[in-house]
């Protein structure tokens, strides 16, 4: 895993030379603060550090007019008064004698990053640049941006490296109208932007920033705008936007390269954005994008004006790029009504162009608390639907602070694997631990006694190893693990019991194949059980859900994005168990994608339990994704079947009142 970090100190040279309250936030300290924080966190040293080069004028010409490039070249020789006069020709722009040099370095840094990733020198990377780029247009500077770094990088990747489809994800809080204009007729570049919009009352006040701007001519459907109409959007809103809008479309598009217009003015504390998303959220957003394009993700800095928030968010993105598990999201995971309205409107506007958006929003008619024979318990705060007692909140805050102390440190071992039989054919990265140790005989016996199947020789040995692995995860020694066993069902039951009694507040259990929910499992909100298999879609209770396994890539993806991950992020487990039972029916790339995405919700704490006879191939694939490598491609996109869609809509209808991360509409009965 190699992550490139492209930077050049000379990009700190440009600065505002006169009084302008609108422009003064775009300061050199933005870069120095971020770089210092990366050094302090030991992150810079883990990256492949590259010094930015200047983009050539021919390269700038991939996007900008020759006249505009000449005009910018001329700024190097202007007096302060002349610079100020030229700046006034544009909206929210200032020039400095070093601006041209800095802006060429900024564009060049993006090109170098693309070169490193597309030649295989690095797997992914970040370019720390200023001036930013996404507002800049063919012949105009705008919004602190001079050259459109990301747009130039996209055209360069296509021309120099023969890349066909590129996804640009613009998570800056402003609309990158420059990128939109450059690619609006081009179906080879999918541009996604969310932005503070407030029904058009926020800068840059453009009608074409709204959700109904979808691109022009052959580019229709390849511009995806998600306008936020209120400030205060947070982690739940951002994750919901990715799960319900960006990722379905992105998988269907199947990009070969992902460019991120990585502005951090969309993070908490930023004076421009006024949003609430935590720095940790940006690790999750990055991780969610790393399952695309074979992990070829290039992030390029755009905005971000609160130095502390900016620096922390940058660190989170770099950690995620390096493959470290993302810290858990600890705030309430309930999207805001206004966010759901925005999600609904962009899904409606894009539905004609993307089959992956065809499942309709549904009316939450059947509430489980009224239709289920089982009582709906209050789950343990904060990980579940609606429990807002004041004391519970206070103790939850305290315990999550304590959790954070314990959980935020990255475990020394990222991935351990405990096999029942030696697998010589299994080739793994060297820092994956092959665990030989077992839990003590007493501990193992105490659990084995409760299950006939576990007293048998191999099953008992396997149980000892599984318990040791689980304890390592619960103690924060190991992040994730894989264990094999000849008795998956009983072992899973023991792991659940041990997990819940030794430190885990909530466990999310995803069971595939012939594995039933243990009959005596308490329905106390501490275990969320999801079965993927069979024919039936049913929510047997708020905490017991069954969904069929789809045969199509579209159906499988919808199941993960529209059901599994919303439940997982809404539940906020501190451990995920992924159990592959007999006849689980998953293809290797499907299992890999599921495992990669399940690293998110529980801070990377994933334990995979597999039947002993699972192939070496599957064990290896899962080990690598849990170690942080990108999953292999699912293969060509095929539409979800009507039955798949019906199952998901049915489950959403049953569950969305309790699990609000499932919602895709602001009002009952909305479509999209
Ligand atoms: N208070 C970037 O983030 N001023 N550019 C808006 C609203 C211009 C932002 C005024 C903001 C430009 C790259
Ligand atoms: Zn911005």
List the helices and strands and how they pair.
Elements (H helix, E strand, L loop, with lengths): L2 E5 L21 H12 L7 E4 L5 H4 L5 H9 L5 H8 L11 H21 L4 E4 L21 H13 L4 E5 L6 H7 L5 E8 L26 E6 L6 H19 L3 E6 L16 H11 L7 E5 L5 H16 L14 H14 L17 H4 L18 H18 L5 E6 L14 E2 L6 H8 L3 H4 L1 H18 L3 E8 L2 H14 L5 E6 L14 E6 L5 E4 L2 E4 L5 H19 L3 E6 L7 H11 L7 E6 L4 H11 L15 H14 L17
Parallel strand pairs: 1-2, 1-3, 3-8, 4-5, 4-7, 5-6, 7-8, 9-10, 9-11, 11-17, 12-13, 12-16, 13-15, 16-17
Antiparallel strand pairs: 14-15
The site of zinc ion (ZN) has 7 residues, from loops.
- What is the domain total for the residues? 2
| Average pLDDT, all residues | 92
Beta-strand share of residues? 5-15%
The CATH superfamily of the largest domain appears as: Histone deacetylase domain
Low-confidence segments, given as residue ranges, are: 369-380, 384-394
Alpha-carbon distance between the two ends: 38 Å
The biggest beta sheet, please? 9 strands, mixed
Q: Which small molecules are bound? A: N-{4-[(3-aminopropyl)amino]butyl}acetamide, zinc ion
Percent helix, as a range, is 25-40%
Sheet with most strands: strand arrangement: 10-9-11-17-16-12-13-15-14
- The total of helices stands at 21
CATH level-3 fold name of the largest domain? Arginase, Chain A
* Oligomerization category of the chains in this entry: single chain
CATH class of the largest domain: Alpha Beta
- Over the alpha carbons, how many angstroms does the gyration radius reach? 25 Å
Total number of β-strand segments?
17
The CATH level-2 architecture of the largest domain is identified as 3-Layer(aba) Sandwich
Please state the structural category. Answer: alpha/beta
Cα shape? globular
């Amino acid at each position: 895993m190699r992550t490139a970090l492209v930077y050049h100190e000379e990009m700190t040279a440009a600065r505002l030379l006169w009084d302008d309250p609108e422009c003064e936030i775009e300061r050199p300290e933005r870069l120095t603060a971020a770089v210092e924080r990366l050094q302090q966190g030991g992150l810079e040293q883990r990256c492949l550090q590259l010094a930015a080069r200047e983009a050539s004028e021919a390269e700038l010409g991939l996007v900008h007019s020759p006249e505009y490039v000449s005009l910018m070249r001329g700024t190097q020789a202007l007096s302060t008064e002349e610079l100020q006069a030229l700046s006034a020709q544009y909206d929210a722009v200032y020039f400095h004698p070093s601006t041209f040099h800095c802006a060429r370095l900024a564009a060049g840094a993006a090109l170098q990053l693309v070169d490193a990733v597309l030649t295989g020198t690095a797997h992914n990377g970040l370019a720390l640049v200023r001036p930013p780029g996404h507002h800049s247009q063919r012949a105009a500077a705008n919004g602190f941006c001079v050259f459109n770094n990301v747009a130039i990088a996209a055209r360069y990747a296509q021309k120099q490296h023969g890349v066909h489809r590129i996804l640009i994800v613009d998570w800056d809080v402003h609309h990158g109208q420059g990128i939109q204009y450059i690619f609006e007729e081009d179906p080879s570049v999918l541009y996604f932007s969310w932005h503070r919009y407030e029904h058009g009352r926020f800068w840059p006040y453009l009608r074409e920033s709204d959700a109904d701007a979808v691109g022009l001519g052959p580019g229709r459907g390849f511009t995806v705008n998600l306008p936020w109409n209120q400030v205060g959007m947070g982690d739940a809103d951002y994750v919901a936007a990715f799960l319900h809008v960006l990722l379905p479309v992105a998988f269907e598009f199947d990009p070969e390269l992902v460019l991120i217009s990585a502005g951090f003015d969309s993070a908490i504390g930023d004076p421009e954005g006024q949003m609430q998303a935590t720095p940790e959220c940006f690790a999750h957003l990055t991780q969610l994008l790393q399952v695309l394009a074979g992990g070829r993700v290039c992030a390029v800095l755009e905005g971000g004006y609160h130095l502390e928030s900016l620096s922390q968010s940058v660190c989170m993105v770099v950690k995620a790029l390096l493959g470290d598990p993302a810290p858990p999201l600890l705030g309430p995971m309930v999207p805001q009504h206004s966010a759901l309205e925005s999600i609904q409107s962009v899904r409606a506007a894009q539905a004609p162009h993307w089959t992956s958006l065809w499942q309709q929003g549904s009316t939450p008619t059947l509430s489980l608390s009224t239709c289920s024979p089982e009582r709906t318990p209050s789950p343990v705060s904060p990980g579940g639907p609606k429990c807002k007692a004041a004391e519970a909140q206070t103790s939850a805050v305290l315990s999550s602070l304590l959790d954070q102390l314990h959980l935020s440190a990255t475990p020394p071992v990222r991935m351990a694997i405990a096999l029942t039989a030696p697998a010589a054919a299994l080739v793994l990265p060297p820092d994956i631990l092959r665990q030989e140790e077992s839990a003590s005989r007493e501990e193992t016996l105490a659990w084995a006694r409760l299950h006939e199947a576990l007293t048998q020789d191999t099953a008992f040995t396997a149980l000892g190893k599984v318990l040791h692995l689980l304890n390592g995860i619960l103690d924060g020694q190991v992040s994730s693990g894989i264990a094999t066993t000849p008795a998956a069902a009983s072992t899973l039951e023991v792991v659940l019991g041990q997990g819940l009694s030794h430190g885990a507040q909530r466990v999310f259990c995803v069971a595939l194949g012939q594995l039933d929910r243990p009959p005596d499992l308490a329905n106390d909100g501490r275990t969320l059980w999801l079965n993927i298999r069979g024919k039936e879609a049913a929510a047997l209770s708020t905490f017991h859900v069954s969904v069929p396994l789809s045969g199509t890539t579209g159906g499988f993806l919808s199941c993960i994005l529209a059901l599994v991950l919303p439940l997982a992020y809404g539940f906020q487990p501190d451990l995920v168990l992924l159990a592959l039972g007999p006849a689980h029916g998953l293809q290797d790339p499907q299992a890999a994608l599921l495992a990669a995405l399940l690293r998110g919700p529980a801070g990377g704490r994933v334990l995979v339990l597999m039947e002993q006879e699972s192939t070496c191939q599957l064990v290896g694939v899962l080990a690598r994704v849990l170690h942080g490598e990108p999953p292999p491609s699912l293969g060509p996109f095929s539409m979800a079947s009507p039955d798949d869609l019906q199952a998901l809509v049915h489950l959403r209808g049953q569950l969305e009142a309790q699990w609000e991360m499932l919602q895709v509409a602001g009002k009952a009965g909305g479509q999209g």
